[in-house]
Every structure is written in C-alpha cells, then in structure tokens.
Amino acid sequence: MAAVLRRGVKLISSGSSQLLSGGCKHGRTSTLCISSSRPSSSKINVELDSSTGIAVMRFQNPLVNSLNLDFLTEICISLEKLELDKSCRGVILTSAQPKIFSAGLDILEMYGKNPEHYAAFWKSVQEIWLKLYGYSKITIAAINGSSPAGGCLIALTADYRIMADNPRYTIGLNETQLGIVAPFWFKDTMLNTVGHRTAELSLQFGLMYTPSDALKINLVDLVVPEEQVLSTATETMTKFLAIPGHAREISKSMMRKPVVDRLLSCRDADIKNFVSFISKDSIQKSLGQYLSMLKQKKS
Ligand SMILES: CC/C=C\C/C=C\C/C=C\C=C\CC(=O)SCCNC(=O)CCNC(=O)[C@H](O)C(C)(C)COP(=O)(O)OP(=O)(O)OC[C@H]1O[C@@H](n2cnc3c(N)ncnc32)[C@H](O)[C@@H]1OP(=O)(O)O
C-alpha cells in the first residue's frame, strides 16, 4: 500500500502481481494504485513527489539488480503507469542495492532454457528498451554503482546520466567478454551517445569504463560524489522541467524515433535471431564458463 512519507510524497511499492490498471488520485498527492498484499515481493519502489512532478524509481532486485523476466515486466508496468500519470513529469532511475546500478540481463534467463523461454525473455528486453528509449517524459539515470551490459543499456536510454565518482564502479557494453553480441539496437543506442569510433572500439573490446573514463567519452554526462548523485539528478531534472514540455518532447522523439522504428519494424525477426543465436552450443558454453567465472571469483 502507498505510504505517505512527507507532504506530497508517496512511497509506492510495486510487485508486478500487485499492480492494478490505471493511475489514481489520493487528495493532493498523485500516485499509482496498488493493492496492499505481499509488498515485500516488490523489485522496485517508486516515490512520486506531486509538488515537483519528479518520480524516483529505485531498483531493488537482490543481489545485483539482474534483469530477469519478472523484474523487467515490473519496471515496464511502473514506467507505463508513470507515463499515464499527469502529475508525473520526469523519472529518476536509480538503485537501492549497494554498489550496483544493474548487473545487466540475468544470464540465467539465457542459459539452459528452452526456445520459448528465450523468446519470451527477449520480448521483455525489447519492451523495456522501447518503453525507455521512446519515453515521452524526462528520464535521468542516477548511476550509483556498476552497470555492465543491459545495465548500461538502461542508463543509455535516459536523457541524462549522472554517475557516482567511485573508481570501483564501471559501466559499459561488455557483451563480447561473455562471448555474446550486443544486438543492433544496443549498438545504436551506444552509437547515438558516444559516436561511431568510440562505439566501435567499445563494442568490439567489450570495454568497461570507470566513471572518469566514461565521462571522457560522454557515456555519462556528469560524475559527482556518491552522496550527491540523487540530489544532482533532482537539480538536473528541474532544469529539464524548465524547458517547454512539448518542444523538449518533440526534440527527443526526433533524435530517437528512427532507431525505435528500426526495431519496431523487425521485432519478430530480432526475437528469432536472438533465440537461434543464444541456443547455439558454442554460445551456451561461453555463458556457462562466464557463470562459473563469476562464482569462482568469490572463492
Ligand atoms: C548477432 C546478434 C544477434 C542477436 C543478439 C544476441 C545476443 C545478445 C544477447 C544478450 C545480451 C546481453 C546483455 C547482458 O546484459 S549480459 C549480462 C552481462 N552482465 C555482466 O557481465 C555482469 C556480471 N556480473 C558482474 O560483473 C558482477 O557480478 C557485478 C559487478 C555486477 C557485481 O559484483 P559483486 O562482486 O558485487 O557480486 P558477485 O559476487 O559477482 O555477484 C553476486 C551474485 O550475482 C550473480 N550475478 C551477477 N551478475 C549476474 C547476471 N548478470 N546474471 C545473473 N547472475 C548474476 C553472481 O553470479 C553471484 O551469484 P551467486 O551469489 O554466486 O550465486
């Protein structure tokens, strides 16, 4: 159930099974409607401040915010609700997990499963990208931890990226390091942000960047002390909000629509391509080895 935190601010815990359709208004505070059952299963929480119109969406999928089917679905539903909610003007994406923004796609969703599962999973990856890259409202990524691959993609879809100044955190599209290939729309999102040559090197080597290096190549827009990431995101959002909304929105769409349309024109083929690629023995072997490496790292 939504709980009032301070004047005009509501905390919204949302498990995908708990979300009801449509937004609703409670007095002065606009928020999402959810049922009160099993709030502990929520993988995200959303705080919407109706006095500023700024929503903060925190990812909280232990341990590392890896993007599995349920989590992706939950994020997508919440984004949709915020997009429909007139009192929301912009969304800050950040993490409630220590040290990690998002570990990217959940490798277990792409390993040892059947083609139907791979297809459903990839469809949900497409959905989140289409929703975020084509999002009408302002989005800012407050990157308070590491952000490899799909985590980097989520950050790349935002209108602005602010990263915590901690050299232990890295960000980038590291797919080739896992023996897999970032699909064309991951590539296009990167290319639109950092330019052709940097994207080419970055994708081939699967480079991960420290915050200061990410700033140098414009992968992030700002690096600030960790404790200032959220406040800086809020300040930046206020600057975006000062721009006439329709003009900003059309400009955003003009920049992004060709890339969005490209995926929309071949969604089914892209799913087929993914399923056939990920099902290959050699790719499964690479993913298996990578998972073992992640586990061994601990011991
Ligand atoms: C021609 C082309 C056609 C079509 C396109 C085809 C293919 C494209 C396909 C896919 C694209 C994929 C994009 C991706 O996002 S792949 C995922 C990439 N992610 C990573 O490489 C991150 C790996 N993880 C890490 O680097 C680290 O875990 C960390 C920095 C995120 C966190 O480090 P910590 O030291 O804090 O924590 P760990 O002990 O390492 O991890 C804890 C726990 O979590 C498990 N885990 C970590 N990341 C993932 C993940 N992405 N998926 C699933 N599980 C993950 C890790 O194994 C640990 O588990 P245990 O506690 O040991 O059980």
Automatic annotation (TrEMBL):
PROSITE patterns named in the record: ENOYL_COA_HYDRATASE, PROKAR_LIPOPROTEIN
Location(s) in or outside the cell: Mitochondrion matrix
Pathway this chain belongs to: Lipid metabolism; fatty acid beta-oxidation
EC number: 5.3.3.8
Pfam families: ECH_1
GO MF, one annotated term: delta(3)-delta(2)-enoyl-CoA isomerase activity
Catalytic activity: a (3E)-enoyl-CoA = a 4-saturated (2E)-enoyl-CoA; (3Z)-hexenoyl-CoA = (2E)-hexenoyl-CoA; (3Z)-octenoyl-CoA = (2E)-octenoyl-CoA; (3Z)-dodecenoyl-CoA = (2E)-dodecenoyl-CoA
One annotated GO biological process: fatty acid beta-oxidation
UniProt cross-references to Gene3D superfamilies, sorted A to Z: 2-enoyl-CoA Hydratase, Chain A, domain 1, 6.10.250.170
Enzyme's top EC category: isomerase
CDD domains xref list: crotonase-like
The organism's place on the tree of life at top rank: Eukaryota
Any GO CC annotation of this UniProt entry: mitochondrial matrix
Keyword tags: Acetylation, Fatty acid metabolism, Isomerase, Lipid metabolism, Mitochondrion, Transit peptide
PANTHER family listed in its UniProt record: ENOYL-COA DELTA ISOMERASE 1, MITOCHONDRIAL (PTHR11941:SF45), ENOYL-COA HYDRATASE-RELATED (PTHR11941)
Protein family per UniProt: Belongs to the enoyl-CoA hydratase/isomerase family.
Function: Key enzyme of fatty acid beta-oxidation. Able to isomerize both 3-cis (3Z) and 3-trans (3E) double bonds into the 2-trans (2E) form in a range of enoyl-CoA species, with a preference for (3Z)-enoyl-CoAs over (3E)-enoyl-CoAs. The catalytic efficiency of this enzyme is not affected by the fatty acyl chain length.
Subunit structure of this chain's protein: Homotrimer.
The protein, known as: Enoyl-CoA delta isomerase 1, mitochondrial
